[in-house]
């Protein structure tokens, strides 16, 4: 399947209300984690079913349900009915190949985005879908696989950093998105470093190796662009949202989030331009080196071709070649050869060929 | 006729109210299919004339009239008069070469778009016009040829998937457009896969074959772009429409439709950039290989040209060439030749030519 | 004078109210045609002066005055005074080199645009200025030369196609613009066909001929773009106009007109991209062929250079060359030569040079 | 100093209210000209000081004070105090390197723009700053040097072309800007003509001369673009201005002015694209010619290299070369040579190399 | 770390309220300077702690606290509490790698931007973060290192240039930003000068040196673009701000500031285009020179190859070569050689190869 756009023929024409997993299964078993907190209390537990989860919820607390692995459609249906979320919203959570989006309802807000992972070894970037649904006291996050992505937030909740423990799911949603966006910036900067390193070698020693790197990075930058651009739109939508579920206090945080995604976005465009420039520079350098090679060949050929001809003339076996019989003919020939060489070299020097 | 823009001289200046078929006839006989349903009832039949159709319509049900083949202008005129649709709207349905559009009237909404078909063998994409006219209880869809494109929707209606049977022509219109757009995404992804496959070969083994593929895919991507871009506009227009004929419930579906066409659109731009990059990389690789070829030629020439000259000198037939008569002259010449070769090779090694 | 932008030094600083012909005279004599009609009546006549025209006008009918040839400034002044049109509007009609524009006054609307003509032989496109001024019962059209461009409209009026005979000058203006825009589309499609035909030859047999065509078409596409883009703006302005002179009924026609000019415009951008791609493909193909040529030369040179050297060695006339005197030396030399050739060929085969 | 952007280090951080000349002095002495007119009266005089000017002003007339040369800061301060113009506005008039701008105050409007001059000999374009300040009865224009740029306007005032004598400073300001913009169009068209002329030579006879021209024109087009783009913004601002100082009657003139600057602007973009295309065509042509050159070289080399080798073989001095002694050997060699040549030529013909 | 985008993994997921220094420490010790002034009074002092500063503040004066060096987080916390600034605002001041931004609160306005420094020797541009927080009587500026950037403003305050001494922190903020933007323009113009200088050499004498410069300047222009673009956004935001902290009088100054940043921005885009053109011209020139080199080589080879072959023929040792024995054979050979040469030269002359 194409890396940049995934689509399955058999899913075309399916009802938008059908809760069907439309992505690739990335974990064996779905994992359910619950963190339940307010300023004073804090509970963290791993659960087996959504029923169990519901029982553990405390209505006055903020509850964060983290679901890793989306293939369990029966679980999804339970979530839909327990939390009173429309079927097609859950169906969209399961469409992991679709674009980031934001839906705003009276009771809850649903948003989805992509998380990025940079594999330093293969220098490839992978993306994973993240969906978040939150109402006034619960946030459910849906990830495709188990990861430590959000550990800093868990840590902040555990350590009672006042702000987060004192706030509702809107602040939590912001905190999660903040990590996602910071990670975008970090991923871009990791790739950017590699791109900037290329710069010095291109003119001095152009090699197929450089060319392969430029090509590779170009593909990754395209992938980043394709992933981050629509996420930017989603965050812009979130900032403009006029919902009661989002308290005024986090508006400036959202503003900052927007500023950060803008930074990621601009930097990608920046690196894209730089890569295009690098390719152009590379190409031009290669063309320039070609001139050098051919100047070299031409100088050599042009010097030796006439003198070889001169020698050839006196290698002929005609009965009557008067020059052959003068005593100093041979040296005169040498003289002619040397003059030719000198004339040639002077000519090339004047043309600044070397 | 051009593939990207079709126009017939004889149709210029025709009155917009004239019901004239302006496309190419793609089927022999127009086919009329009627599906008539509500939550409880379901009728599906193939009909011969529009009169027969009208009789079969049940006003309280949702009726879907599917017309395959547009060349029968008398049928079109009947539709115009029976359903009270202005002549120029029907005339626009018959202009299959024009852009997707949307017209919003009090009684009905008319929209047209393009359906795409990917021929896996020729790797070419074809498009067909689709027009939809619907009022509060009837939807008429006009296709250029008979196809199984909308079978998933028919299946959903037949199987009484509650949502679709319970909704009016607006939901049906959405369901049809949804398939159209999902198909865009699928078509783009099929082409995209081919494009991504190209990536590996370009640097290692550039061949005319690759070049032809790049060219071919570029044309197809242009064709996709040209087809999908205006359709995106149409769907944006549909989302912004403030019509009584569109119920509030399907607003979020339209929102999702818009998100999907955006995905198709973005992906095309993505693949377009990738193809341009590939062409650049290809060109640069070819230029780089040229350097290799010419380094090879130059090294060989530059080594052999002077030593061939040395041999040539001693092939001359001058009466008096002192060197010829020393006993070891021949071996000295070999020595000179070998030194030249060694000097040359050292020089090239230092210049890192090999 | 430049083809893309015409400007005369002596016209700089002229008062905008001066009625002066600023273009090139394209006909000898101005031709005045009047068509006067309502649903029942129809008069068509060729006239000699504007006074004569005025007399023939029937206030309750729709009158279409067609003026071919703009150099007769006294006629223009008469029009200005008879129809109460401000001097600078008539002055703008005479500025045939300026951009399409639209002016909306209480009494009349003035609009100007360009008509295109494709010369199939020279494959060049020419443009001519068209200005239209209409009030509630009269439309005056100004063309630079006599032509059959609007014959389909005249035909429709003559044949009493109800719609046009029943409508006022606004519908007539639309009908004229419709022909202009349909002609744009047709012109683009004619050029487009030529461009698409180029596609197949480019990789298989690149020739200067192709290159010249690409260049030529690029210029024509630029010309089309330059001409159609501002016309699109004018039509958008017309659609947004809130004037009593434009009846509600023709709004959807204007909408369609806009859709058509959009089609022309998009297609031009499309063909422009295609031409750029073709040029890139052409260049890359040429670079690729160069590699082939030079591989060929290199293989030949690299094989023959060393063996010619071997022969050269034994053409020297040293007194003492031991090898010369062995009986099989000559055949050994041949052996050496053949081995060299085989080694070389094997080497190139491995490098996949042929 | 850079031609495209001028900046002086010592002027950084200066108070915006300081009346300091920040450009380059282009005339020795400031020249003050006053034209004072109404429908009946007309006075034109050259003055020495601003006091003298003030005395000559007639409040009921329209007065046009033209100042050529901006280095006299004491004069500038007098203007500031006499006409009650804020210091920083006068300071901006003196910043001749800044962008065109428009300031709208209750009492007066200040606008600045660039005037262009095309030097036909060097084919270079120069720009000069023009600032205009006008209130309800006086217009002051500030130019960097004495010129005949606005003579047509002076002529119109002198000859009592009713419109201009009957209008206030707003019409005068329009008339001046009209000349500026017409001159833009003219300058672009002069350069455009040169660019279009290039087109024919590029493919048939590409030369460094062409390349230098393309480069030169590209720089000039960039310069034009850089100058005209911000002026367009200024004029758009002027059109949108809702000031009592601008009478309704000149709105359509401003509209037309905007249309003209749009024309200049579009044409520049047009020529820019054409130049880029020309450079691409040139490059591709050069690459194509290279193939021709190398085909030629390759054909020649490939034909002669083997036959020279054959001759070389029989130039060896081995004691025992059986072929040398047959009577017809020499002719057989010629036969072999000719066959080789024929085979080669056939091969190249088939490959369509010539 | 990448130059274009800096990001530290360990800072991902940190609470936005944490006052942590996130940049690189550029000075050893934080420096605190206070300037306190009104129209009559003026105090300037260097202080050790924020407490000391607070004591020195006079509420009726305008106070400017300049902080150089941001690593002292305890100082930052003091500022936060003394001036009643929210923690996350101070936290943002410490994020020196983030984008320019503007926050508008009832009590204070916070804005940040980048200051540029051009190192003439390395031809590299460096940027430093500047944050400004001001309320109705105090302005705090935060810089990363000690510099003389704002000395002109200090000078103006000291010398009692009336305007600045008479205004509040809003005017001071403008004055600081004005210097920043003027410096942008100056930096761009310095680089621009270098770029324009390149122009002449490119076609006459293309060298790797030029290529390296183009590459270098391209990187710097990208860096400038990346830095200035978001600053432009910030200033646009500032101009649109509707805050009581910004008096009406400085609106026109802000307008001018915006005009200046636009100038910087446009010029960068200008130079970017010029550099791209230069690279293209360079590449094309190199390709053109290649043709010259190879024409030279081809002419030489094509002339000498056949005549060397002729000489080779008569160097063969066949027993029976009739031509060898005619008396004038040798001269006839010379005749043949010269004819060949003349034919060749005529051929090349006709093809206009030299």
CATH class of the largest domain in chain A: Alpha Beta
N to C succession of SSEs of chain A: EEHEHHEEEEHHHHHH
CATH superfamily of the largest domain in chain A: CorA soluble domain-like
Greatest interface (CB-CB under 8 A), with counts per chain? A-B, 69 and 71 residues
CA-based gyration radius of chain A: 35 Å
In terms of structural class, how would the helical and strand content of chain A be classed? alpha+beta
Q: Per the principal axes of the C-alpha atoms, what is the gross shape of chain A?
A: elongated
Named CATH topology of the largest domain in chain A: Beta Polymerase, domain 2
What is the second-level CATH architecture of the largest domain in chain A? 2-Layer Sandwich
Oligomer: homopentamer
From the N-terminal CA to the C-terminal CA of chain A, the straight-line distance is: 54 Å
Provide the number of structural domains of chain A: 2
Number of strands of chain A: 7
The portion of residues assigned to helices of chain A is 40-55%
Low-confidence stretches of chain A: none
- Summed up, the helix count of chain A is 9
Biggest beta sheet summary of chain A: 7 strands, mixed
């Amino acid at each position: 399947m194409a890396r940049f756009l995934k689509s399955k023929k058999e899913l075309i024409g399916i009802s938008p209300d059908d809760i069907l997993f439309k992505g690739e299964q990335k974990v064996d078993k779905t994992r359910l984690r619950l963190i339940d907190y307010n300023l004073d209390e804090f509970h963290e537990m791993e659960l087996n079913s959504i029923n169990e989860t519901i029982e553990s919820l405390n209505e006055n607390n903020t509850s964060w349900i983290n679901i890793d692995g989306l293939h369990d459609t029966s679980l999804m249906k339970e979530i839909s009915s327990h939390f009173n979320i429309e079927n097609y919203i859950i169906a969209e959570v399961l469409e992991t190949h679709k674009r980031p989006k934001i839906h705003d309802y009276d009771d809850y807000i649903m948003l989805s985005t992509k998380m990025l992972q940079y594999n330093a070894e293969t220098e490839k970037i992978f993306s994973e879908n993240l969906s978040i649904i939150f109402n006034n006291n619960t946030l459910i996050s849906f990830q495709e696989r188990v990861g430590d992505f959000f550990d800093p937030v868990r840590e902040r909740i555990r350590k009672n950093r006042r702000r987060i423990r004192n706030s509702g799911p809107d602040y939590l949603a912001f905190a999660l998105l903040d990590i996602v966006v910071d990670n975008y910036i970090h991923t871009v900067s990791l790739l950017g470093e590699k791109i900037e390193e290329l710069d010095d070698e291109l003119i001095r020693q152009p090699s197929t190796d450089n060319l392969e790197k430029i090509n590779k990075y170009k593909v990754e930058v395209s992938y980043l662009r394709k992933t981050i651009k629509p996420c930017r739109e989603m965050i812009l939508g979130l900032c403009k949202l006029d919902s009661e579920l989002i308290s005024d206090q986090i508006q400036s945080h959202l503003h900052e989030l927007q500023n950060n995604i803008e930074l990621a976005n601009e930097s990608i465009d920046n690196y894209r331009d730089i890569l295009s420039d690098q390719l152009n520079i590379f190409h031009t350098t290669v063309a320039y080196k070609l001139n050098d090679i051919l100047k070299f060949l031409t100088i050599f050929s042009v010097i030796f071709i006439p003198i070889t001809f001169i020698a050839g003339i006196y290698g002929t076996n005609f009965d009557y070649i008067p020059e052959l019989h003068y005593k100093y003919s041979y040296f005169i020939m040498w003289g002619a050869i040397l003059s030719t060489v000198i004339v040639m070299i002077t000519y090339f020097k004047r043309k600044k060929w070397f």
